[in-house]
Design goal:
There is one protein chain. The protein contains 16 helices and 23 strands. The longest helix has 20 residues. The protein is globular, with a radius of gyration of 24 Å. It starts with a helix and ends in a 14-residue tail after the last helix.
């Protein structure tokens, strides 16, 4: 450890009620963990164990059975006596049913403060669609209605510049409720304002046949739609030939579209996190929250998702709900998700946090969730949407009920109409999407250096300086405008388009 680090700040306490600090540098046993106090002075605690980067150190003795507090909220229960200065992690702290419906105090934590008014305004250059919505890309979507059409659509899209597609693993052998979710997602992808028009391709005998999917698309949008049925045109080769012809014609039409100045309030701003470590909750997610608050204050819509990663933090969003109905809705989707998982003899905490999350320093699902909800800033919560439902512009902060799986959660909010998704990570991830840019950031300096190919913004100054959170917010807003105006994010440049649709039931 350098002299600078040993003599200066090397840890942080997020809320004055916390009984743990987070090491912002790796600490060896015997080192002083120094963290700032509200008056600007540094307090310290001597580490009695080695404390890995972004892991927790006890500020006080925490007896067995007492709750561990971070973010001013309960994140777990001590499973053994924890002494001041000890490493706090999975070996001595765990989630517990005792945490349910319990809060540290009636007063709000750092997670529930109110947002600040935003100054200034911004515009971007967007494509105005016939249905009135504005896109930031001008793709022609070659849409596979089922897995049986996916290879064909991929070949068509690869043959024509300006086209995009993805592998649809669903669309057949599904129970009715699953098929409805698939159709809603496909219709949502087609309706996304980043799409000029759609060539809808089916095999011909699947559950999600062309006419059903096209009807769902027409309920959402009036943009151009062409159809192609592989069995009717005489097989894959002829289908690729015909699809290529239709795609070229539609791309020529799309090329006549011209960008026009558009107010930032037209943006539907999606947020997601994956491959998380504590740097996400310390730096990148609060930064996204600052951007989200700024956009909401300027009339945009901002979307939280990943229902399993609201578990243990749902009370925070419920407090911020605009009315009792929205409060009840947020609590219900979390409750329903937990009961759904229990139907299969499993528990929410079994697969979450992931092994990578835990290695990075996240101990419990509650801790992960409390970091996750920072992406929603401090704005009031105005609505809760089902998976892939069409989102409304100018609605402020909303939640969509999605799985925690990244390609599925990102896909759900894009099907809802997000033109752009920002994605925070601690450990690094290549997640992208064919329809909307996925802008990725990390506050972990090591991850940024190791995965520059996959990361659009180094957000580590939110933890280490010298830039302030406000300065980083403005820099990220500049980036977002540039992406809206056409600059490719890393995932787009690499051609990453992974997409997954959720299952309620196994295939029939």
């Amino acid at each position: 450890m350098s002299d600078v680090v040993s003599q200066g700040q090397n840890a942080v306490v997020i809320d004055q009620r916390d009984n743990v600090a987070v090491a912002t540098y790796q600490l060896e046993a015997g080192a002083e963990a120094r963290y700032p106090m509200p008056d600007g002075t540094l307090a310290s605690v001597t580490a009695t164990d080695d404390i890995p980067l972004f892991h927790k150190i006890a500020l006080v003795d925490i007896p067995k059975g007492e709750k561990v507090v971070k973010y001013g909220e309960f994140i777990g229960v001590a499973t053994t006596d924890i002494k001041r200065g000890q490493h706090v992690h999975t070996h001595n702290c765990a989630s517990s049913d005792d945490l349910k419906d319990s809060v540290v105090a009636d007063t709000d934590s750092v997670a529930t403060k109110t947002s600040s008014p935003a100054e200034g305004t911004r515009t971007f250059m967007g494509y105005r669609r016939p249905d009135g919505r504005v896109g930031i890309r001008n793709h022609v979507l070659i849409l596979p209605t089922s897995i049986c059409a996916s290879d064909t659509t991929e070949r068509i899209a690869n043959a024509v510049e300006g086209c995009v597609s993805f592998h649809n693993q669903n669309g057949c052998s599904q129970v009715d409720c699953d098929q409805k979710v698939t159709i809603a997602a496909l219709a949502g992808y087609a309706a996304n304002p980043n799409i000029y028009g759609v060539v809808c391709v089916s095999l011909g005998c699947e559950g999600c046949q062309n006419d059903i999917v096209v009807d769902a698309i027409r309920e959402r949008t009036n943009k151009p739609v062409e159809t192609l049925v592989i069995q009717k045109v005489g097989g894959s080769i002829r289908a690729i030939e015909e699809g290529t012809r239709l795609a070229r014609k539609m791309v020529a039409e799309a090329d006549r579209c011209v960008r026009e100045p558009t107010d930032i309030s037209e943006l539907i701003f999606g947020t997601n996190c994956g491959g998380s470590d504590p740097s996400s909750g310390l730096g990148s997610n609060p930064l996204i929250g600052e951007v989200s608050d700024w956009l909401v204050n300027h009339g945009a819509t901002s979307v939280l998702c990943e229902t399993p990663e609201l578990f243990g933090a749902e009370h925070i969003l419920a407090r911020r709900a605009k009315d009792k109905q929205v409060s009840d809705d947020i609590l219900k989707i979390v409750y329903d998700y937990e009961k759904y998982v229990q139907m299969f003899g499993a528990e929410m905490r079994e697969g979450n946090p992931s092994p990578g999350n835990m290695a990075g320093g996240l101990t419990t699902l509650e801790e992960k969730s409390l970091g996750c909800v920072h992406k929603g800033g401090h704005s009031p919560l105005n609505a809760v949407y089902p998976y892939a439902a069409q989102l409304n512009p100018h609605e402020g902060l909303v939640v969509m009920d999605t799985p925690g799986n990244d390609p599925s959660s990102v896909g759900g909010i894009i099907a809802g109409g997000c033109q752009l998704v920002v994605f925070s990570t601690g450990l690094g991830t290549p997640t992208g999407n064919a329809i909307a840019p996925v802008y990725r950031l990390t506050a972990n300096k090591r991850t940024y250096e190791a995965m520059r190919d996959n990361t659009d913004l180094d957000a580590s100054p939110t933890i280490y300086g010298p830039e302030s959170m406000e300065e980083m917010r403005d820099r990220m807003l500049d980036d977002i405008i540039a992406v809206c105006n056409g600059r490719k994010v890393c995932a787009e440049a690499l051609g990453y388009t992974e997409t997954a649709l959720p299952h309620i039931c196994n295939y029939m």
